[in-house]
Amino acid sequence: MKFLSREENRVLEIPTIQIRPNKTQPRKSFDEDDLRLLSQSISTNGILQPLTVRKLSATEYELVAGERRLRAAVLAGLTKVPCVLIKCTDKESAIFALLENIQRADLNMFEEARGISRLIRKYGLTQEDAAIRLGRKQSTIANKMRLLKLSMEEQDWILQAGLSERHARALLRIDDEEVRKEMLSKIVAENLSAKDTEDEVVKLLCRTTVTTTATQDKKFIVRDVRIFVNTIAKAVDTMRLSGINAVAKKAETEDYIEYTVKIPKNEATAHKIKHNKSA
Questions:
Q1: What does pTM read for this prediction?
Q2: Quick check: is 67 catalytic?
């Protein structure tokens, strides 16, 4: 970022009609009550901190930072606002807009995550690059990005309930969206703290693991039984091919699988005598 040399150390009064909003502005929602209060303050005291803009043409500027102040100024009826003019690229403008909102804590957790995600996608940054430019740890950027795995419905629900980012990260441990929504409903209904939420999620995951393991073990046992049953069936088929009129009957009850094999004694004895003579 560079200040334009001719305008250095100068604050310009620029008509609000000539200022375009920043297309990469990460903040999408503005509290109407907060804007009204800021508007009243601006009407009384003026704008204490100038907006930051960059020049697009002789009569057009793009807002880099200060959209909340600009909206409040328009609401207060101002036709001109004080601005500091800077020279920057599209990428730098996007970074400055995101940085200002982060530093002023103006973004909710999901707006911040979406802003970082857009920055990375649009300008081909790595998470490490974004972390350096935003003054964050790479792990912090990674955790922010993971929040976007929650559905928009879940995100809205979390924000409306006033839950923290720690609540959201705990929920991310649940892969199944329906199960996750059930847990979210429980958190809101019982007003669970972030620590209680983490404990409940751990309990849920432990129960799920035990149930899954038990189910897998049960299925393994059933597969083993089928192997035995198939072995019996093959043995009966072999006897029949050898001339023994064996009869097999399978029946199932609630508690057992019954398999009965009947071999006629005379055929079995005759087969044995025949075999001995052949030897």
A1: 0.53
A2: yes
